[in-house]
Amino acid sequence: MSTSKTHLIEDLIASEDVAFFPYTQFSNITHISPGIYSPEWNVKWTTRNINVQLQSLNHVFEKDDETIQKFIKQLREVAKLPSHNNILTFYGLTKDTEKQIYYVILESTENGLPLPEFLKKSTTLSWIEKFKLAKQLSLGIQHLHNNSIVFRELNTYRVIVEEGDLKIAGVGLSIATDESMFNGALLYKDPWILQDSAYKIKKSSDIYSLGILFWELTSERRPFANDPREMSKLTTSIMNGERESPIADTLKEYSDLYQCCWERNADKRPSIGQVVQALSLIETGNAIFKRDSDRFEFMEIINELDDKGDDIIDDNDDDDNNNNVNSNYNMESEATFEFVEVIDDNAQDSMNYQTLADDDAGSLYARGSVYSQFSQSSHHQKTTTKERRIPREIVFPGEEKIERKWWHSVLWCV
């Protein structure tokens, strides 16, 4: 460590803008293998009876004075940041006086995994689980932007997942980490930063990185992971507008969203507030997002009836099979009654589902109610097999039919 530069951190501590804790408060200090951005030590904070992690600031003092001053400014910003469920907590600083090493004190991620490792290990992630992580990531960035903090270095190894919940790590500590350990970090950077080192990093730069991470959640791999090109050639292509292609079966609105986020024109990218709003609209309007166990039951019954409807069509191509039609139809009636009962149970509560004050959209996929169709079926009225096909897109009670064009009022870049 350059002792000639430590006065900068000492002045910060003296100002009391950042909390400082004696090193003697920590015990059971265990060295951990440092990953790309991982802290170096697991420790027990005895006075608080919690486990935390320490990250050395040695790397910082190898920088020039101007860079260190930027780091000090970042620490001041992070120290004032209110806690948030999706941001790794920064507690303050400590110093090992024997070794003359300063450390930042961070919330423990001992049981968490960086996003790439989590996606590799979790081979059966559902779309809803991935969407949950996307929303948590957005809420974390929204918290930073609402407090006038630009992350600057958002990438896959800054995202930690523990027990299904996501936290953003390293806020305010980008200068304290060695970017050279992860060459792929360039693929998450705003192309304008790659093109011009003097480019002033803005909130829109975080939005670009967010879009890349949204894509990564659906692809379950890092961007351009299988691309044979050298990094310099790849980044040049990215600066010229090349992006990964949307993954098959991704919700159209979700892929629209992340493609808006990674727009080359930074002025066309949505704000983080618009991103969070769009995610909420996708969630509230899409039938695959069940608000409770009853909605899960909706989809199970729909799929069951749909499968049976296909069997009926296959088995009943002529009038000689009418008896079989009636037999199969009656076999379905129990499930049909159950479906209608679920709808009736939810009708009174349908308006309790999450809505936005300025949202007139209702449901993203509201294209024809099946309620009356199932009500008729439940009374054993005779219908043709064509009429009884079960639509995949549903209007739940209390939701309104709308046109998809509303999406353009949320994201003008699509």
Automatic annotation (TrEMBL):
InterPro entries: Kinase-like_dom_sf, Prot_kinase_dom, Ser-Thr/Tyr_kinase_cat_dom, Ser/Thr_Kinases-Pseudokinases. Residues 26-282 form the Protein kinase domain. One of its GO terms (molecular function) is protein serine/threonine kinase activity. It holds the Pfam family PK_Tyr_Ser-Thr. This is 11443_t:CDS:1. It comes from Ambispora leptoticha.
